[in-house]
Amino acid sequence: MFVGNEAESKGVAKYKGLTTIATNGKPVWTGKVNIAGEKLFNVPKRWKESSIIFVNSMSDLFYEEVPKDLVFKIFDKMLSYNWLKYLVLTKISERMKTLVNEYCELKGFDKLPDFIWLGVSVEIGYDPKDARPFNVDWRERLETFVRRKA
């Protein structure tokens, strides 16, 4: 959030309205989502050498306010530029599981191609909703994303 707030204060349009400053002086995310322009979606098309793209390095593709159609459009772009590798991290594992499974079913895939890497990030700290320490069973989470043929 600090980067987004600092960028907004410098007039970077894509960060406008994403944070406010709390009474303690720290930036707080407003929950607003800004969607990149169409031009940005086609930038990787020009890249000839293989690269790793960190998708949504400053956001979360699976945030509930990101429309499903947009998520599918981004996956379609990844498939179109298949000489690149994509890293997609989220904190919203259940929505990722649901949308990835739905997308794979729509495309007739058993799983996403190997050049699309999915992961779940976890903050160290406390869940502000219930003030309990996070407790993640990594094996259970890993099993969630492994698709198997029936």
- Could you describe the largest sheet, including whether it forms a barrel? 3 strands, parallel
The backbone outline, from C-alpha atoms, is globular
| Secondary-structure content class | alpha/beta
Give the termini separation: 42 Å
Radius of gyration: 17 Å
Helix content: 25-40%
The average pLDDT value, as a whole number, equals: 77
The strand line-up of the biggest sheet is 3-4-5
Q: What is the total tally of β strands?
A: 5
Keywords:
150 residues; 5 strands; alpha/beta; three-stranded parallel beta sheet; two-stranded antiparallel ribbon; disordered C terminus; disordered N terminus; single chain; globular
Please describe what this structure looks like:
The chain contains 5 helices and 5 strands; from the N terminus they run H-E-E-H-E-H-E-H-E-H. The protein has 150 residues and is an alpha/beta fold. The protein folds into 2 domains: 32 residues, no CATH class; 110 residues, no CATH class. A hairpin with a 5-residue loop joins strand 1 and strand 2.
Give a brief rundown of this model.
The protein has 150 residues and is of the alpha/beta class. It has helices at residues 2-9, 38-41, 68-80, 93-107, 138-144, and strands at residues 19-21, 27-29, 52-55, 85-90, 116-120.
Topology summary:
Elements (H helix, E strand, L loop, with lengths): L1 H8 L9 E3 L5 E3 L8 H4 L10 E4 L12 H13 L4 E6 L2 H15 L8 E5 L17 H7 L6
Parallel strand pairs: 3-4, 4-5
Antiparallel strand pairs: 1-2
